[in-house]
Amino acid sequence: MSLIVFLRGINVGGHRTFRPSMLARDLAAYDVVNVGAAGTLVVRKPVSPAKFLTELRQKLPIESTVAFCDASDLIRLELEDPFAAEPLDQDAVRFVSIFSQASRKEAFLPVQFPRGEEWLVRIMGSTNRLAFGVYRRRMRTIGYLGQVDKLFGVPVTTRSWSTILSVLRIVKDYERATSRNEGKSI
Q: Cα dist. 178→44, 157, 166, 181 in Å?
């Protein structure tokens, strides 16, 4: 199963900028696919996370927190349909935060920031190294997304649900193509 890697805080506001597509090219031996400009990588060649992350850090041109998960974690989350009970509001963005390491805290969920009716970030649940929720498109939201780190006691990196679905399409397409090719060689 593919390894999914998320870099934190790159290409934001003109700081810590580089081209993740170039990094993916540098890591071609691992069959890496870049997704967007935020530093989301799908590692399709089976490899231990420790080995890949060591090489990634050597090739990474800037300092960045790295979070990762196995594609099966995202597939499981998609199957659980965590946003089914959340009405789709045009002003809201569904998201997943990926932990950079196992959480040291148990969070009592759901929780929202700030507390009250005018929330900007709502964390609905978590599983393994993933938390999921909804945020509103407001200028102050980014500050409240930073509260997710404090809530779980580890640095997290956040991607929209649409980015996660793009990652899953890449993984599933690759798995289908691989299984078709294996079937032909029998």
A: 11, 30, 18, 5
Residue 52 and residue 72: Cα distance in Å, rounded? 18
Q: With contact defined as beta carbons under 8 Å apart, do 25 and 79 qualify?
A: no
* Residues 6 or more apart whose Cβ sits within 8 Å of residue 89: 134
**CA distances for 172 relative to 45, 176, 179, angstroms:** 14, 6, 10
* Ordered alpha helix ranges (H), 18-134: 20-26, 49-59, 71-80
Per-residue confidence in pLDDT tens, the chain, 186 aa? 799 999 998 866 666 678 899 999 999 999 999 998 889 999 999 999 999 999 999 999 888 899 999 999 999 999 999 998 877 788 999 999 999 999 878 889 999 999 988 999 999 999 989 999 999 999 999 999 999 999 999 999 999 999 999 999 999 999 999 888 876 654
